[in-house]
Specification:
It is a single chain. The chain is globular and about 65 Å long. It has one domain: MFS general substrate transporter like domains (Growth Hormone, Chain: A), CATH 1.20.1250. The relative contact order is 0.13. With 476 residues, it is an all-alpha fold. The two termini are 37 Å apart. It comes from Dendrothele bispora (strain CBS 962.96).
């Protein structure tokens, strides 16, 4: 009998009843703390490592361009570089939702391992391309295989924790990846010094070495990747019961409900998840633009190739520190929208300084602020969305939609910064600023709506439980 046929409460009760009897006593705080800490260490470092590799593999194009690929493949002609950067996101966007809907059916281990091996092979293939069209084809394959990873990881993480524990965890997962990938320019520069070995240029060695690392990581993931809480194999039965009970008491969706076509379209009809997705897009648009054009902007300031590569790392480190502090504050106060707004304003200031700063130091500081703000908005929008949806089916749809719009942010971030606008990219700056102003408008709209729904339910003007879950209130 399915979850829907039995009822959700009966399903969770049946699942818990087969675990060892705890005679009704509550789990003690120390046991709870140790269990959740064990989940943190078992899950977040590995997922952060894998995501950092995916960021490296998608963003090293800018570094390879600086390391000689531009001359070899002539991608500086017209809009070739923007096309190679942009077309990655087409399959990346289109395959987000289908891959997330199939995740529970085929299993986390099989899906994630397949994704990693696929994009590792595509990355490796880029080392041997002879023209920009072949590079474009490899980038499309890279986007297709990476499409399912980020929404799957976000979906999995949000099923393990209570609502107001999520943003710090999402930030650890996301920002640890940002921190590791922030050292990519240094690593890539070192790899590029292999220029001439085996007849390969420096940029080809970057793709070759990093692709081989990705393939090796696929084996590690197959052995250690965590699954959903009800399918995990690394916790004891008592620990599993604790995790499921915590989630059930917090929001009532510890176990998965059945995904149907009707449910998917019903979830897609909720304008709020589209609003969260557009906010996420605003953050990723800035993040991708800086990732792909950071070294180019620094070169426009007169820095050498080596200096440009090395100077890209400090903004990443600052972004990690800033975003984690904001995420911890957001979890502590159980508030999302205000912190997203503040970090959006920081992004706006940074973009203005990047575009209109009269001195190189001011423009470089603008890169710091822009990346700090945008990197904080990304986990903030993920947590804002995850806190305000109930059920695995809606969580699956909402996370996929968010990451898909993140991919659209990548498309915009790599196309609005046009070659003819070099070196200040003013048109790209204003297009990116527009996305930040849209985020602020959406924050006002969502906060007003959620606050009104909470108030009307407390006043008895709404009789049905919010999100269909008794005792649930939206997080503002």
């Amino acid at each position: 009998m399915s979850v829907e046929e039995k009822g959700f409460d009966d399903a969770i009760r049946d699942h818990i009843e087969h675990l060892p009897d705890t005679k009704g006593e509550e789990f003690d705080k120390e046991f709870e703390r140790k269990t959740i800490r064990y989940v943190d260490f078992r899950m977040l470092p590995l997922l952060g490592l894998v995501y950092s590799v995916s960021l490296i593999d998608r963003a090293n194009l800018a570094i390879a361009r600086t390391a000689g690929m531009e001359d070899d493949l002539q991608i500086e002609i017209g809009e070739r570089y923007s096309m190679v950067s942009c077309f990655y996101f087409v399959p990346y966007v289109l395959l987000q939702l289908p891959s997330n809907l199939l995740l529970r059916r085929f299993g986390v281990r099989s899906c994630i391992t397949s994704y990693i091996l696929g994009w590792g092979a595509a990355q490796l293939g880029m080392a041997f391309v002879t023209d920009w069209k072949q590079l474009l084809a490899c980038r499309v394959l890279l986007g297709a295989f990476e499409a399912g990873f980020f929404p799957a990881m976000t979906f999995i993480i949000t099923t393990w924790y209570k609502r107001h524990e999520m943003q710090a965890r999402l930030a650890i997962f996301y920002l640890s990846a940002i921190c590791i990938s922030g050292f990519t320019p240094i690593l890539s520069y070192a790899i590029s010094l292999l220029k001439g070995k085996r007849g390969l240029n420096g940029w080809a060695w970057i793709f070759l070495v990093e692709g081989a690392i990705t393939l090796a990581l696929g084996i590690l993931v197959f052995l250690y990747i965590p699954d959903f809480p009800d399918r995990n194999t690394f916790l004891t039965p008592e620990q599993t019961r604790l995790v499921l009970e915590r989630v059930q008491r917090d929001r009532g969706d510890a176990l998965a409900d059945k995904i149907t076509t009707r449910k998917v379209f019903n979830h897609l009809g909720d304008w709020l998840i589209w609003a969260y997705s557009l906010m996420f897009m605003g953050g990723t648009m800035v993040s991708y633009a800086i990732s792909f054009f950071n070294t180019t902007i620094l070169r426009s300031m007169g820095y050498s190739v080596a200096a440009s590569l090395l100077l890209t790392t400090p903004p990443y480190i600052a972004a990690v520190i800033s975003a984690f502090i904001f995420s911890r504050m957001s979890d502590k106060t159980k508030h999302r929208a205000g912190f997203i707004a503040l970090q959006t304003l920081i992004t706006i200031v940074g973009l203005v300084l990047m575009g209109y700063g009269s001195q190189n130091g001011v423009r470089y500081f603008g890169i710091f602020l822009s990346y700090m703000g945008a990197s904080g908005v990304i986990p903030g929008a993920l947590a804002y969305s995850a806190n305000n949806v109930v059920s695995h089916s809606k969580r699956s749809v909402s996370t996929a939609l968010l990451i898909a719009w993140g991919g659209i942010g990548g498309i915009l971030g790599t196309t609005v910064f046009r070659q003819q606008d070099f070196p200040r990219y003013i048109n790209g700056i204003w297009a990116t600023l527009g996305a930040q102003f849209l985020t602020l408008v959406l924050l006002v709209a969502t906060t007003t709506t959620l606050r009104r729904r909470n108030r009307r339910f407390k006043e008895g003007k709404i009789t049905e439980p919010l999100e269909g879950q008794p005792g649930f209130f939206y997080t503002l």
